[in-house]
Amino acid sequence: MLAYFPPVIQSRLDKIRKESKNWMPIWTGDEDYEKFEVHGHPTNMVVDLGKRICTCQFWILTGIPCIHACAALTRVNKRPKDFCHQLCTMEAYNKTYAHHINPLPGQSLWEKSMYT
């Protein structure tokens, strides 16, 4: 069976999940049970699970739920891996490298152009 995530993504997600246990998510009272204020050191963060954003910006930059989002996801009994961006999957990785790149000769062997 193939892994769902490349090893580097899986190890990062495992580390984040482990560290998220040090944060305390507090539900803000919204109807959808998606917005949380996550308390921890050195500051508090706001997580919106519906929009998949956190004030730390890690989630939106990497596509992987941050420590704060993982704490909130654990609170609502959801798996962080289900909230990773599609581009983080092994399928996306394999599609990226499915095509080969033709090799190039060294720069000293390039044809001279009239513009150089």
UniProtKB/TrEMBL annotation:
SWIM-type domain ranges (all copies): 45-77
Keywords: Metal-binding, Zinc, Zinc-finger
Descriptive protein name: SWIM-type domain-containing protein
Protein origin, superkingdom: Eukaryota
Molecular-function GO term, any one: zinc ion binding
